[in-house]
Amino acid sequence: MAEETSTATDTTAELQDRMIDALQSVIDPELGIDLVNLGLIYGMSLTDGVATVTMTLTTVGCPISQVLENMIGTAPEKLPEVNNVKIDIVWEPAWSPSKMSRYARVALGYHMG
């Protein structure tokens, strides 16, 4: 029985990794860095073929928010388990440069104090 639980967990972890990989293909057109490394993706889930991406934007009223939503909506659909994508934009916790990966901070020349 423990093996079945482990396999289910491995499958879930593997699916999460593939969803993250898919979202890493979504590049912010203004910054040239993917949304995962920018720290804008807060979570992902998959229920009955619907992938829900919980994310934020760098600013309220982001001028490219519709472009990003369209790009995010198509990236996970490349996975066979995903039939539809729902995007849940949240403002809490607020995004800050500290949410960026080391890669993004170095690429953008951002030095944290």
UniProtKB/TrEMBL annotation:
Keyword presence, Signal: no
Pfam family, one: FeS_assembly_P
Swiss-Prot/TrEMBL keywords: Methyltransferase, Transferase
GO MF assignments: methyltransferase activity
Domain MIP18 family-like: 20-86
One GO term of the biological process aspect: methylation
Protein name: DNA methyltransferase
The species this protein was found in: Secundilactobacillus paracollinoides
Lineage: Bacteria, Bacillati, Bacillota, Bacilli, Lactobacillales
